[in-house]
Amino acid sequence: MSLYEKLGGDAAVDAAVDIFYRKVLLDDRINQYFDGIDMAGQAQKQKAFLTMVLGGPNSYTGKDMREGHKHLTGLNDTHVDAVIELLGETLKELGVGDEDISEVAALANSVRNDVLNR
Amino acid sequence: MTVVHYGSQAVAVAEGETLLSALARADIQVPNSCRSGVCHSCLMVADSGAIPPRSQAGLTAQQVARNCFLACQCLPHEDMAVSLADAERRYQAVLVDKQPLNDGVLRVRLKTDMPWFAGQYTSVWKSPSEGRSFSIASLPEEGVVEFHIRRRPDGAISGWLERELHEGDSCELSTARGHCFYTPDCNDKTLLLAGTGTGLAPLYGVARQALAQGHQGDIHLYAASGSPGQLYLTEELGELAQRYANFHYHPVAKRDVEEHPHVQQGDLVDVVSRRHGNLKQYRVYLCGAPAMVRKLQKLSFLQGAAITDILADAFETPA
After folding, report:
1. Which of A4, A38, A59 to mutate against chain B (most B CBs within 10 Å)?
2. Could you tell me if the ipTM is greater than 0.95?
3. pLDDT in tens, chain B (319 residues)
4. Interface A-B: count of C-beta contacts within 8 A
5. Measured by CB atoms within 10 angstroms of the end CB, which terminus of chain B is less buried, N or C?
6. Rounded CA gap, B182 and B91, in Å?
7. Under a CB-based contact definition with an 8 Å cutoff, are residues B192 and B279 in contact?
Protein backbone atom coordinates (compact mmCIF):
# COMPACT_ATOMS: atom_id res chain seq x y z
CA MET A 1 0.00 0.00 0.00
CA SER A 2 1.41 3.38 -0.96
CA LEU A 3 1.77 6.17 1.58
CA TYR A 4 -0.78 8.03 -0.59
CA GLU A 5 -3.37 5.36 0.17
CA LYS A 6 -2.33 5.00 3.83
CA LEU A 7 -2.84 8.74 4.40
CA GLY A 8 -6.31 8.65 2.85
CA GLY A 9 -5.84 9.49 -0.85
CA ASP A 10 -7.01 12.61 -2.57
CA ALA A 11 -8.55 14.44 0.40
CA ALA A 12 -5.43 13.84 2.51
CA VAL A 13 -3.26 15.38 -0.19
CA ASP A 14 -5.49 18.48 -0.19
CA ALA A 15 -4.86 18.83 3.55
CA ALA A 16 -1.13 18.29 3.02
CA VAL A 17 -1.00 20.97 0.31
CA ASP A 18 -2.63 23.49 2.66
CA ILE A 19 0.01 22.83 5.32
CA PHE A 20 2.94 22.63 2.91
CA TYR A 21 2.04 25.73 0.87
CA ARG A 22 1.63 27.83 4.06
CA LYS A 23 5.13 26.77 5.16
CA VAL A 24 6.51 27.69 1.74
CA LEU A 25 4.95 31.18 1.82
CA LEU A 26 6.33 31.83 5.30
CA ASP A 27 9.87 30.60 4.56
CA ASP A 28 12.18 33.49 3.68
CA ARG A 29 14.65 31.16 1.99
CA ILE A 30 12.23 30.41 -0.84
CA ASN A 31 9.08 32.55 -0.63
CA GLN A 32 10.39 35.17 -3.09
CA TYR A 33 9.79 32.61 -5.84
CA PHE A 34 6.09 32.41 -4.92
CA ASP A 35 5.26 36.13 -4.92
CA GLY A 36 2.45 37.33 -7.14
CA ILE A 37 1.69 33.98 -8.78
CA ASP A 38 -1.70 32.38 -9.31
CA MET A 39 -2.27 30.66 -5.95
CA ALA A 40 -4.98 28.25 -7.05
CA GLY A 41 -2.86 27.10 -10.01
CA GLN A 42 0.20 26.74 -7.78
CA ALA A 43 -1.79 24.67 -5.26
CA GLN A 44 -2.86 22.36 -8.07
CA LYS A 45 0.78 21.88 -9.12
CA GLN A 46 1.83 21.20 -5.54
CA LYS A 47 -0.95 18.67 -5.30
CA ALA A 48 0.37 16.84 -8.35
CA PHE A 49 3.89 16.94 -6.87
CA LEU A 50 2.80 15.67 -3.43
CA THR A 51 0.69 12.95 -5.03
CA MET A 52 3.76 11.84 -6.95
CA VAL A 53 6.17 11.76 -3.99
CA LEU A 54 3.58 9.95 -1.86
CA GLY A 55 3.36 7.22 -4.49
CA GLY A 56 -0.15 8.08 -5.72
CA PRO A 57 -1.37 8.02 -9.31
CA ASN A 58 0.60 10.57 -11.26
CA SER A 59 1.75 11.71 -14.64
CA TYR A 60 5.13 13.06 -13.57
CA THR A 61 7.46 13.93 -16.39
CA GLY A 62 10.83 15.50 -15.80
CA LYS A 63 10.09 17.75 -18.74
CA ASP A 64 7.22 19.52 -16.94
CA MET A 65 9.39 20.04 -13.87
CA ARG A 66 12.24 21.41 -16.00
CA GLU A 67 9.95 23.71 -18.01
CA GLY A 68 8.20 24.91 -14.88
CA HIS A 69 11.35 26.03 -13.09
CA LYS A 70 13.86 27.11 -15.70
CA HIS A 71 12.74 30.75 -15.75
CA LEU A 72 13.53 31.10 -12.02
CA THR A 73 16.84 32.89 -11.76
CA GLY A 74 19.22 31.99 -8.96
CA LEU A 75 17.53 28.71 -8.11
CA ASN A 76 20.03 26.33 -6.49
CA ASP A 77 20.47 23.30 -4.23
CA THR A 78 19.73 25.23 -1.04
CA HIS A 79 16.22 26.02 -2.34
CA VAL A 80 15.55 22.38 -3.16
CA ASP A 81 16.89 21.40 0.29
CA ALA A 82 14.48 23.89 1.90
CA VAL A 83 11.51 22.47 0.00
CA ILE A 84 12.38 18.89 1.00
CA GLU A 85 12.78 20.02 4.62
CA LEU A 86 9.32 21.68 4.60
CA LEU A 87 7.85 18.59 2.98
CA GLY A 88 9.25 16.50 5.85
CA GLU A 89 7.80 18.88 8.45
CA THR A 90 4.42 18.74 6.72
CA LEU A 91 4.34 14.94 6.80
CA LYS A 92 5.46 14.89 10.43
CA GLU A 93 2.49 17.12 11.31
CA LEU A 94 0.25 14.63 9.53
CA GLY A 95 1.64 11.83 11.71
CA VAL A 96 3.88 10.16 9.13
CA GLY A 97 6.81 8.20 10.61
CA ASP A 98 10.50 8.97 10.01
CA GLU A 99 11.07 5.97 7.78
CA ASP A 100 8.27 6.93 5.40
CA ILE A 101 9.43 10.55 5.42
CA SER A 102 12.92 9.46 4.31
CA GLU A 103 11.39 7.53 1.46
CA VAL A 104 9.34 10.55 0.35
CA ALA A 105 12.41 12.77 0.64
CA ALA A 106 14.34 10.37 -1.58
CA LEU A 107 11.59 10.54 -4.22
CA ALA A 108 11.50 14.33 -4.01
CA ASN A 109 15.28 14.36 -4.30
CA SER A 110 15.06 12.38 -7.52
CA VAL A 111 13.63 15.42 -9.34
CA ARG A 112 16.41 17.75 -8.15
CA ASN A 113 18.28 17.79 -11.45
CA ASP A 114 15.09 18.46 -13.40
CA VAL A 115 14.15 21.37 -11.13
CA LEU A 116 17.64 22.85 -11.37
CA ASN A 117 17.76 22.25 -15.13
CA ARG A 118 21.05 20.35 -15.17
CA MET B 1 -23.77 0.19 -24.16
CA THR B 2 -24.36 3.92 -23.79
CA VAL B 3 -24.21 6.70 -26.35
CA VAL B 4 -22.47 9.98 -25.64
CA HIS B 5 -23.13 13.04 -27.75
CA TYR B 6 -20.28 15.46 -28.41
CA GLY B 7 -21.24 18.34 -30.66
CA SER B 8 -23.00 16.72 -33.61
CA GLN B 9 -21.27 13.35 -33.11
CA ALA B 10 -22.73 10.33 -31.31
CA VAL B 11 -20.12 8.03 -29.81
CA ALA B 12 -20.86 4.53 -28.54
CA VAL B 13 -19.14 3.72 -25.25
CA ALA B 14 -18.54 0.03 -24.56
CA GLU B 15 -19.13 -1.59 -21.18
CA GLY B 16 -16.14 -0.86 -18.93
CA GLU B 17 -14.67 1.69 -21.31
CA THR B 18 -13.82 5.22 -20.20
CA LEU B 19 -15.36 8.16 -21.99
CA LEU B 20 -11.86 9.45 -22.73
CA SER B 21 -10.89 6.35 -24.68
CA ALA B 22 -14.26 6.14 -26.44
CA LEU B 23 -13.88 9.76 -27.62
CA ALA B 24 -10.29 9.09 -28.71
CA ARG B 25 -11.51 6.12 -30.77
CA ALA B 26 -13.92 8.49 -32.52
CA ASP B 27 -11.01 10.87 -33.24
CA ILE B 28 -12.29 13.45 -30.76
CA GLN B 29 -9.23 14.96 -29.10
CA VAL B 30 -9.64 15.67 -25.42
CA PRO B 31 -6.50 17.04 -23.72
CA ASN B 32 -5.24 14.40 -21.29
CA SER B 33 -2.12 13.44 -19.42
CA CYS B 34 -2.22 11.16 -16.35
CA ARG B 35 -5.41 9.23 -17.12
CA SER B 36 -5.74 8.50 -13.43
CA GLY B 37 -7.86 11.40 -12.22
CA VAL B 38 -5.04 13.52 -10.83
CA CYS B 39 -3.97 16.06 -13.45
CA HIS B 40 -7.49 17.27 -14.40
CA SER B 41 -6.40 17.84 -18.03
CA CYS B 42 -9.44 15.96 -19.38
CA LEU B 43 -12.02 18.10 -17.56
CA MET B 44 -15.38 18.11 -19.39
CA VAL B 45 -18.91 19.34 -18.76
CA ALA B 46 -22.06 17.21 -18.93
CA ASP B 47 -24.83 19.14 -20.66
CA SER B 48 -27.25 16.28 -19.97
CA GLY B 49 -27.24 12.77 -18.51
CA ALA B 50 -26.20 11.40 -15.11
CA ILE B 51 -22.55 11.93 -14.14
CA PRO B 52 -20.87 8.90 -12.50
CA PRO B 53 -19.79 10.11 -9.01
CA ARG B 54 -16.32 8.59 -9.38
CA SER B 55 -15.57 10.99 -12.24
CA GLN B 56 -16.13 13.98 -9.92
CA ALA B 57 -13.82 12.84 -7.10
CA GLY B 58 -11.27 15.52 -6.26
CA LEU B 59 -13.11 18.32 -8.08
CA THR B 60 -14.00 21.56 -6.33
CA ALA B 61 -17.55 22.26 -5.15
CA GLN B 62 -17.79 24.88 -7.91
CA GLN B 63 -16.72 22.40 -10.60
CA VAL B 64 -19.26 19.86 -9.35
CA ALA B 65 -21.98 22.55 -9.41
CA ARG B 66 -21.06 23.30 -13.05
CA ASN B 67 -21.49 19.56 -13.92
CA CYS B 68 -17.78 19.13 -14.58
CA PHE B 69 -16.22 15.67 -14.54
CA LEU B 70 -13.02 13.89 -15.58
CA ALA B 71 -13.34 11.98 -18.85
CA CYS B 72 -10.60 9.51 -17.84
CA GLN B 73 -12.59 8.46 -14.77
CA CYS B 74 -15.99 8.40 -16.45
CA LEU B 75 -17.70 5.09 -17.22
CA PRO B 76 -21.06 6.41 -18.46
CA HIS B 77 -24.03 4.43 -17.18
CA GLU B 78 -26.60 6.31 -19.19
CA ASP B 79 -26.56 8.42 -22.36
CA MET B 80 -24.90 11.80 -21.93
CA ALA B 81 -24.22 14.98 -23.91
CA VAL B 82 -20.79 16.42 -23.15
CA SER B 83 -18.45 19.25 -24.14
CA LEU B 84 -14.97 20.42 -23.18
CA ALA B 85 -14.92 22.39 -19.91
CA ASP B 86 -13.47 25.44 -21.60
CA ALA B 87 -15.69 25.24 -24.68
CA GLU B 88 -17.19 28.63 -25.46
CA ARG B 89 -20.39 29.52 -27.19
CA ARG B 90 -22.30 32.74 -27.60
CA TYR B 91 -25.84 33.53 -26.52
CA GLN B 92 -28.25 36.19 -27.69
CA ALA B 93 -29.24 38.78 -25.10
CA VAL B 94 -31.74 41.65 -25.16
CA LEU B 95 -31.34 44.81 -23.09
CA VAL B 96 -34.14 45.04 -20.51
CA ASP B 97 -33.14 48.30 -18.82
CA LYS B 98 -30.23 50.37 -17.56
CA GLN B 99 -30.01 52.71 -14.64
CA PRO B 100 -27.21 54.73 -13.01
CA LEU B 101 -26.56 53.46 -9.46
CA ASN B 102 -24.40 56.55 -8.78
CA ASP B 103 -22.14 58.89 -10.75
CA GLY B 104 -19.65 56.15 -11.47
CA VAL B 105 -21.67 52.95 -11.89
CA LEU B 106 -24.35 51.94 -14.39
CA ARG B 107 -26.63 48.97 -13.81
CA VAL B 108 -27.39 47.07 -17.03
CA ARG B 109 -29.87 44.19 -17.19
CA LEU B 110 -30.26 41.77 -20.08
CA LYS B 111 -32.58 38.88 -20.82
CA THR B 112 -30.83 35.75 -22.13
CA ASP B 113 -30.97 31.95 -22.31
CA MET B 114 -27.39 31.68 -21.08
CA PRO B 115 -27.12 29.64 -17.85
CA TRP B 116 -25.10 31.22 -15.01
CA PHE B 117 -24.38 31.33 -11.31
CA ALA B 118 -24.52 34.67 -9.46
CA GLY B 119 -20.92 35.91 -9.21
CA GLN B 120 -19.62 34.34 -12.43
CA TYR B 121 -18.50 36.56 -15.31
CA THR B 122 -19.24 36.67 -19.00
CA SER B 123 -18.18 38.78 -21.95
CA VAL B 124 -20.56 41.30 -23.52
CA TRP B 125 -19.92 41.58 -27.26
CA LYS B 126 -20.48 44.87 -29.06
CA SER B 127 -19.35 43.23 -32.31
CA PRO B 128 -18.05 39.72 -33.05
CA SER B 129 -14.52 40.77 -32.04
CA GLU B 130 -15.03 43.59 -29.55
CA GLY B 131 -16.12 42.55 -26.08
CA ARG B 132 -15.44 43.03 -22.38
CA SER B 133 -15.88 40.86 -19.29
CA PHE B 134 -18.30 41.79 -16.55
CA SER B 135 -19.36 39.96 -13.40
CA ILE B 136 -22.97 38.98 -12.83
CA ALA B 137 -24.79 40.43 -9.82
CA SER B 138 -28.17 38.71 -10.31
CA LEU B 139 -29.50 35.26 -9.38
CA PRO B 140 -30.66 32.89 -12.14
CA GLU B 141 -34.17 32.87 -10.64
CA GLU B 142 -34.38 36.64 -11.28
CA GLY B 143 -34.45 35.87 -15.00
CA VAL B 144 -32.08 38.63 -16.14
CA VAL B 145 -28.31 39.05 -15.96
CA GLU B 146 -27.35 42.20 -14.12
CA PHE B 147 -23.99 43.95 -14.58
CA HIS B 148 -22.53 46.91 -12.70
CA ILE B 149 -20.54 48.82 -15.28
CA ARG B 150 -17.91 51.41 -14.36
CA ARG B 151 -18.89 54.48 -16.37
CA ARG B 152 -15.97 55.65 -18.53
CA PRO B 153 -16.70 58.50 -20.95
CA ASP B 154 -14.13 57.12 -23.39
CA GLY B 155 -14.77 53.42 -22.68
CA ALA B 156 -15.25 51.45 -25.90
CA ILE B 157 -17.72 49.03 -24.35
CA SER B 158 -19.03 50.97 -21.33
CA GLY B 159 -19.68 54.04 -23.49
CA TRP B 160 -21.52 51.92 -26.05
CA LEU B 161 -23.62 50.27 -23.32
CA GLU B 162 -24.47 53.64 -21.81
CA ARG B 163 -25.22 55.61 -24.98
CA GLU B 164 -25.84 53.30 -27.92
CA LEU B 165 -27.47 50.09 -26.74
CA HIS B 166 -31.15 50.81 -26.09
CA GLU B 167 -33.96 48.86 -24.46
CA GLY B 168 -34.98 46.02 -26.75
CA ASP B 169 -31.63 46.02 -28.61
CA SER B 170 -29.68 42.75 -28.90
CA CYS B 171 -26.08 41.82 -28.30
CA GLU B 172 -24.17 38.62 -27.56
CA LEU B 173 -22.83 37.12 -24.33
CA SER B 174 -20.33 34.27 -24.04
CA THR B 175 -20.55 31.21 -21.78
CA ALA B 176 -20.49 32.28 -18.12
CA ARG B 177 -17.19 31.41 -16.42
CA GLY B 178 -15.42 31.63 -13.11
CA HIS B 179 -15.74 29.99 -9.72
CA CYS B 180 -16.77 32.98 -7.56
CA PHE B 181 -20.25 31.70 -6.79
CA TYR B 182 -22.11 30.20 -3.84
CA THR B 183 -22.37 26.47 -3.27
CA PRO B 184 -24.42 25.08 -0.36
CA ASP B 185 -21.56 22.84 0.89
CA CYS B 186 -20.38 25.87 2.90
CA ASN B 187 -23.81 26.38 4.50
CA ASP B 188 -22.48 26.69 8.08
CA LYS B 189 -19.22 28.45 7.29
CA THR B 190 -18.71 32.17 7.76
CA LEU B 191 -18.69 33.94 4.41
CA LEU B 192 -16.19 36.75 4.02
CA LEU B 193 -16.92 38.79 0.88
CA ALA B 194 -14.52 41.63 0.10
CA GLY B 195 -14.49 43.82 -2.99
CA THR B 196 -13.37 47.18 -4.32
CA GLY B 197 -15.39 49.28 -6.77
CA THR B 198 -17.63 47.19 -9.02
CA GLY B 199 -16.09 44.10 -7.39
CA LEU B 200 -19.28 44.51 -5.38
CA ALA B 201 -21.32 43.13 -8.31
CA PRO B 202 -20.36 39.43 -7.96
CA LEU B 203 -20.35 39.70 -4.16
CA TYR B 204 -23.86 41.18 -4.16
CA GLY B 205 -24.89 38.13 -6.21
CA VAL B 206 -23.08 35.64 -3.95
CA ALA B 207 -24.51 37.17 -0.75
CA ARG B 208 -28.09 37.18 -2.02
CA GLN B 209 -27.74 33.66 -3.41
CA ALA B 210 -26.46 32.47 -0.03
CA LEU B 211 -29.38 34.14 1.78
CA ALA B 212 -31.86 32.74 -0.75
CA GLN B 213 -30.52 29.24 -0.06
CA GLY B 214 -30.83 29.66 3.71
CA HIS B 215 -27.13 30.05 4.55
CA GLN B 216 -26.66 29.40 8.27
CA GLY B 217 -23.27 31.00 8.99
CA ASP B 218 -22.56 34.71 9.23
CA ILE B 219 -22.05 36.68 6.03
CA HIS B 220 -19.71 39.67 6.11
CA LEU B 221 -19.75 41.85 3.00
CA TYR B 222 -17.03 44.52 2.70
CA ALA B 223 -17.43 47.05 -0.11
CA ALA B 224 -14.57 49.51 -0.49
CA SER B 225 -13.96 52.67 -2.51
CA GLY B 226 -11.81 55.80 -2.47
CA SER B 227 -14.45 58.07 -0.92
CA PRO B 228 -17.90 57.31 0.55
CA GLY B 229 -19.68 58.93 -2.42
CA GLN B 230 -18.30 56.21 -4.69
CA LEU B 231 -19.99 53.44 -2.72
CA TYR B 232 -23.24 52.19 -4.24
CA LEU B 233 -26.21 49.97 -3.33
CA THR B 234 -25.68 51.18 0.23
CA GLU B 235 -29.42 51.40 0.96
CA GLU B 236 -30.16 47.96 -0.48
CA LEU B 237 -27.31 46.41 1.51
CA GLY B 238 -28.43 48.23 4.66
CA GLU B 239 -31.91 46.81 4.17
CA LEU B 240 -30.52 43.29 3.73
CA ALA B 241 -28.67 43.69 7.03
CA GLN B 242 -31.94 44.77 8.68
CA ARG B 243 -33.78 41.80 7.29
CA TYR B 244 -31.25 39.03 7.94
CA ALA B 245 -29.59 38.75 11.34
CA ASN B 246 -26.61 36.85 9.87
CA PHE B 247 -25.87 39.41 7.14
CA HIS B 248 -23.39 42.18 7.97
CA TYR B 249 -22.59 45.06 5.63
CA HIS B 250 -19.27 46.88 6.09
CA PRO B 251 -18.72 49.89 3.83
CA VAL B 252 -15.08 51.04 3.76
CA ALA B 253 -13.51 54.17 2.22
CA LYS B 254 -9.93 55.38 2.03
CA ARG B 255 -10.78 59.03 2.83
CA ASP B 256 -13.42 61.66 3.66
CA VAL B 257 -15.53 59.52 6.00
CA GLU B 258 -16.15 62.34 8.53
CA GLU B 259 -19.78 62.88 7.52
CA HIS B 260 -20.46 59.17 7.03
CA PRO B 261 -20.65 57.52 10.45
CA HIS B 262 -21.39 54.06 9.00
CA VAL B 263 -18.35 54.02 6.74
CA GLN B 264 -15.05 52.76 8.14
CA GLN B 265 -11.94 54.62 7.03
CA GLY B 266 -8.93 52.62 5.95
CA ASP B 267 -7.40 50.23 3.50
CA LEU B 268 -9.63 47.24 2.78
CA VAL B 269 -6.80 44.72 3.30
CA ASP B 270 -5.99 46.14 6.76
CA VAL B 271 -9.62 46.47 7.83
CA VAL B 272 -10.49 42.89 6.84
CA SER B 273 -7.38 41.16 8.13
CA ARG B 274 -7.60 42.98 11.48
CA ARG B 275 -11.28 42.14 11.99
CA HIS B 276 -11.04 38.49 10.89
CA GLY B 277 -7.90 37.01 12.45
CA ASN B 278 -8.60 33.30 12.22
CA LEU B 279 -10.20 32.17 8.99
CA LYS B 280 -10.57 28.47 9.67
CA GLN B 281 -14.20 27.60 8.88
CA TYR B 282 -14.50 30.57 6.51
CA ARG B 283 -15.20 30.72 2.83
CA VAL B 284 -13.65 33.84 1.31
CA TYR B 285 -14.65 35.63 -1.91
CA LEU B 286 -12.39 38.42 -3.21
CA CYS B 287 -13.25 40.55 -6.25
CA GLY B 288 -11.95 43.76 -7.75
CA ALA B 289 -8.58 45.53 -7.86
CA PRO B 290 -5.85 42.94 -8.59
CA ALA B 291 -3.40 44.20 -5.93
CA MET B 292 -6.06 43.97 -3.20
CA VAL B 293 -7.22 40.55 -4.39
CA ARG B 294 -3.71 39.09 -4.37
CA LYS B 295 -2.84 40.54 -0.96
CA LEU B 296 -6.03 39.34 0.72
CA GLN B 297 -5.81 35.96 -1.00
CA LYS B 298 -2.40 35.33 0.51
CA LEU B 299 -3.34 36.77 3.90
CA SER B 300 -6.55 34.72 4.03
CA PHE B 301 -4.59 31.55 3.34
CA LEU B 302 -1.94 32.35 5.94
CA GLN B 303 -4.72 33.16 8.44
CA GLY B 304 -6.13 29.68 8.13
CA ALA B 305 -8.57 29.51 5.21
CA ALA B 306 -8.16 26.36 3.10
CA ILE B 307 -6.98 27.06 -0.44
CA THR B 308 -10.22 25.59 -1.82
CA ASP B 309 -12.18 28.02 0.38
CA ILE B 310 -10.63 31.13 -1.20
CA LEU B 311 -12.35 32.17 -4.42
CA ALA B 312 -10.67 35.13 -6.05
CA ASP B 313 -11.50 37.14 -9.14
CA ALA B 314 -9.05 39.92 -9.97
CA PHE B 315 -10.51 42.49 -12.36
CA GLU B 316 -7.69 43.13 -14.81
CA THR B 317 -8.44 46.30 -16.74
CA PRO B 318 -7.59 46.21 -20.44
CA ALA B 319 -4.68 48.44 -21.36
Report:
1. A59
2. no
3. 899 999 999 999 999 999 999 999 999 999 998 888 887 889 999 999 999 999 998 899 999 999 999 999 999 999 999 999 988 899 999 999 999 999 999 999 999 999 999 999 999 999 999 999 999 999 999 999 999 999 988 889 999 999 999 999 999 999 999 999 999 999 999 999 999 999 999 999 999 999 999 999 999 999 999 999 999 999 999 999 999 999 999 999 999 999 999 999 999 999 999 999 999 999 999 999 999 999 999 999 999 999 999 999 999 876 5
4. 45
5. C
6. 23
7. yes
Residue type, B175: T
Rounded CA-CA distance B306/B300 in Å is 9
User: Across the interface, do A58 and B312 touch by the CB < 8 Å criterion?
Assistant: no
A65 interfaces chain B, CB cutoff of 8 Å: no
CB contact under 8 A, A58 and B34: yes
Question: Inter-chain contact B307–A48, Cβ cutoff 8 Å?
Answer: no
Candidates B37, B42, B38, B40; CA nearest to B22 is B42
Q: State the DSSP string of B134-185.
A: EE--S-GGGSSEEEEEE--TT-HHHHHHHHT--TT-EEEEE--B-S-S--GG
Residue of chain A nearest B300, judged by CA positions? A22
* DSSP code of residue B52: P
The answer to whether residues B134 and B121 touch, using CB atoms and an 8 Å cutoff, is: yes
Nearest to B302 among A22, A36, A47 (CB): A22
- pTM, two decimal places: 0.91
Side-chain-facing half-sphere of B167: CA atoms under 13 Å: 5
B259-265 long-range contacts, CB within 8 A, separation 24+: B259/B228, B260/B228, B262/B238, B263/B228, B263/B231
**DSSP letter at A38?**
-
CA distances from B223 to A72, B199, B265, B284 (A): 37, 8, 12, 14
C-alpha to C-alpha distance for B280 and B306, rounded to whole angstroms: 7
Task: Evaluate whether B277 touches B248 at the Cβ level (below 8 Å).
Answer: no
Residue A106 touches chain B, beta carbons under 8 Å = no
**Number of neighbours of residue B7 by Cβ within 10 angstroms:** 11
CA angle A96-A100-A105, nearest 5°?
A: 105
